[in-house]
Amino acid sequence: MKTTLNSLTLAAGMVLLFSLAGATGVRAAETATNDLPLPFPLIDRFENFQIKDGLPTHKAHCVLRASDGKLWVGTYNGALVREDGKFRRIGVEDGLSHKMVLCMVEDKRTGDMWIGTMRGLNRYSAGHITTYLQTTSGLPNNVIYGLDIMDDTLWVATAAGLGSLNLKTGEWAIYDQSNTVMHEPWVYAVKGAKDRIFVGVWGGGILEYELSNKIFKEHRDPDRDFHYELVHDAGPVSDITSWIAWEDDILWQGTYFGMSRYDGSRWRTWQEKKSPLISNFVNFIWPHGRVAWVGTDRGISVTDGNTWATYRTNEKGEGIVEIARPGRPVETRTMSTKLPNDFVLGIWVDDQEAWFATSDGLSHAIFAAPPKPTKVADAK
Amino acid sequence: MKKLFLVLTGLLVLAPAGWCAYEEKEDTTPSTNFIAEPVLPPGTRPAQKSEGDYPFYGGNYPFYGNVPEEMLPYRNIEPYYRYWLTRLPFYGPGRDYPAPPDLKTLRVGLLSPPPYGPEAVRGEMSKKGVMLAIEEANAARLPGELPFELIEKADSPQWGSAANIAIEFADTNALAFIGTIDGDATHVALRTVLKTEMFMVNCSDPDPSLTETQIPWLLRDFPDNRQQGYLLARLMVEERGLTKIVVFRGNSRPGRMGVRPFVDAVRRLGHPVLQEINFKDGDRTFDTQVAVIKQANPEAVVFWGNPAETGPAAAQLRAAGVKAAFYGFDRLVDPDFVKLAGPAVAEGTTAAYPFDPEKTDPSWTNFVARFQKRYGMKPDIYAGYAYDGAQMLIDAIKKAGPNRYRIQDQMRAINEYNGVCGYMRFDGRSDNIAPIVYAEYRQGCWHYFPPPKAKPPQTAAK
């Protein structure tokens, strides 16, 4: 009898608890979700720059703000530096090895800008350009898809292998099918990560290279089938890596089949329609803290892996942001401005602002003021 | 420095074909967490939803690779996610961009294989097919219409050379380009077109993975090793009851990737290959491999490589007393195979093949006549597919005008095409998945046969 009474009390308590929880959930759902904190800033508006605003071409491939505060843009027709509110173009006539600039990285110790093009690598130093070609240096191939600098080493992802240039000695090393585990040296991206580098290989997944031990490790799509993602969260979403990014111990993989995230022990994968990711066609990922800013062919998705915001153009031609929080309906807001084009190729973000390189111009994102702290947050 | 550059360039030119080419190595990485696909009993029906049921296909649209039901990967599991249920469009801008200023010709690039490499002969026939299409198109242009101009550039055996050439096409304002045969070079060039936004038509690379990268700037009209592998699997296992099969393939990307659909297909039919044995491109003696194959005593040996290697290998297998039937993909029909193997050894050899080159339909026979008139020789399949690919591109340029983005739209909208090579059908990857044939070498010549039909399943779905 005592046992029965205790069981009844427990059951009644649980009913009351669930009722309260349910009521809270309903209230929260009924309340406008605008003020709920997000793990990343929301964009309030876009300021766009296109040909009419001084860009030399439609297509911008990459963008970054250098440590001196200058904005650099890689375009289909040269590199741009924004100074005094105007774009200054650096082209072939200035010594650049090719007009199509695909990637850039700054050596923050020297202020040198390394510029990867469709034909050769360039170092822009104090206004002077030095060019590196596969026929005149240790560069593996002239087509350069990605760059990164770690300590004294410049890493170069090329169409025919990964190159490394020792910035102190000028010595090159090439990593390809002959001295690594990659079957084909079709390298698309490279990213330094503390004591190792990650290499995005076209058709070869991701290579992890431990610098101290000189050991290569492969991360491959577990089902080995391009037709399917057999099971999700099991490994890289595809072996065809289009981009990789790393920050705060989180590796992000972009592919044309969705996106993956690896925290050192667990993989997560996302595809369009099965998740809030706007498109499987991921061109670029910029990590900021534990948040990924994802450039796709249909807009930008921002996520920490749980909460998402997606910026795109709707069927009416309006700019919208769609906010997807776990367990809540997607909230759609119409924006007063929109991206110049939803085909996003490059991103740069810090705590203050974001820049987007798109197929039809450059966009500067102004963040919305963060929502006022809630009482719960105050209590903390 | 200039002298050094010239010396290095000279060395590259003099280097033998394949000098820098891919060579396979042992996979020593234990880090991968691959899912092992189970070998299901023969006749096991798929538990997956048929892709023909998906709305896009409407029951008619060709699905990914036209994979036979009994050869579907992981067919006892419904996958979490499927790709290529729709053909990916290019979502970027450009359709309204003006034509390049002072346009005097409509430029089309042709990326040919190295003229001194193993693909040289096929490359030359492809080039002839493309040139004929361009010449005929120009002859039919009306006054005031811009002529087509072919810009040909030959690849070199240096890794990544094709990427540099693809950029040169963009630099010269080519509207699109055609090429190439070698799987490595084609992949390398393909990766650049995503950046240059220039359409690429492939008419001769059999690499099954070429169209599986989701780059929406590619169409291939050549029936690839996937289609050829499925046909061989059905013919050998289902129709002829062969179950003890050995694969003898090139130690190269074409060998490794090309044979994969066949190896997967026969495993899914319940009969995994006994052995997959490699040879190096350039090898001429195969003592070790022959001894291993003889020990296995297979019913069939499937060759996946070029005739320079497979011809002598076939002869050495027979000389060692291996009685297995010989099979392979279309490269076995290359005259060099019979020449190097010898007619007696080649007797009974069976190869998957895109179509019957002895066919008598007017489209093909007229093309053969025009080709012979122009070049004084009969066309082969490579000339035919190159002609058809160029013709599709010419039609697209005519409709779209000199705008790369509208040309892309036109090319990716092609679902079916009737060319000189016959009927073509393009799947969600813009890959030709029309039925192909097989050839048998009997009494001094190749005879062509329609593909085997699917056998009814042995067990009902539960």
Summarize the structure.
The complex is a heterodimer of chains A (380) and B (462). Chain A is built from two helices and 31 strands.
Give descriptors for this structure.
heterodimer; A: 380 residues; mainly beta; six-stranded antiparallel beta sheet; four-stranded antiparallel beta sheet; 2 helices; 31 strands; B: 462 residues; alpha/beta; Rossmann fold; five-stranded parallel beta sheet; 15 strands; 36% helix; disordered N terminus; disordered C terminus
What topology emerges from the helices and strands here?
The complex is a heterodimer of chains A (380) and B (462).
Chain A lengths: L1 H29 L12 E7 L10 E6 L5 E5 L2 E6 L2 E5 L10 E7 L4 E6 L2 E6 L2 E5 L11 E7 L2 E6 L2 E6 L5 E4 L11 E7 L2 E6 L3 E6 L4 E5 L8 E2 L11 E7 L2 E6 L2 E5 L4 E4 L11 E7 L2 E6 L2 E5 L4 E6 L5 E6 L6 E4 L9 E6 L3 E6 L2 E7 L7 H5 L1
Antiparallel strand pairs in A: 1-31, 2-3, 3-4, 4-5, 6-7, 7-8, 8-9, 10-11, 11-12, 12-13, 14-15, 15-16, 16-17, 19-20, 20-21, 21-22, 23-24, 24-25, 25-26, 26-27, 27-28, 29-30, 30-31
Chain B lengths: L1 H13 L66 E2 L23 E7 L7 H20 L8 E7 L6 H11 L4 E4 L3 H14 L2 E4 L15 E3 L4 H15 L5 E6 L2 H6 L1 H9 L6 E5 L7 H10 L3 E5 L2 H13 L5 E4 L6 H7 L1 H4 L3 E4 L8 H14 L5 H20 L3 H9 L3 E4 L2 E4 L11 E6 L2 E5 L13
Parallel strand pairs in B: 2-3, 2-4, 4-5, 5-6, 7-8, 7-9, 9-10, 10-11
Antiparallel strand pairs in B: 11-14, 12-13, 14-15
Helix pairs in contact in B: 2-13, 3-4, 5-7, 9-10, 13-14
Largest sheet of chain B: 7 strands, mixed
Low-confidence parts of chain B, pLDDT < 50 over ≥5 residues?
Answer: 1-22, 55-60, 458-462
Rounded to the nearest angstrom, the distance between the terminal CA atoms of chain B is 73 Å
Beta content of chain A:
over 45%
**What characteristic shape of chain A results from the CA principal axes?**
globular
CATH architecture of the largest domain in chain B: 3-Layer(aba) Sandwich
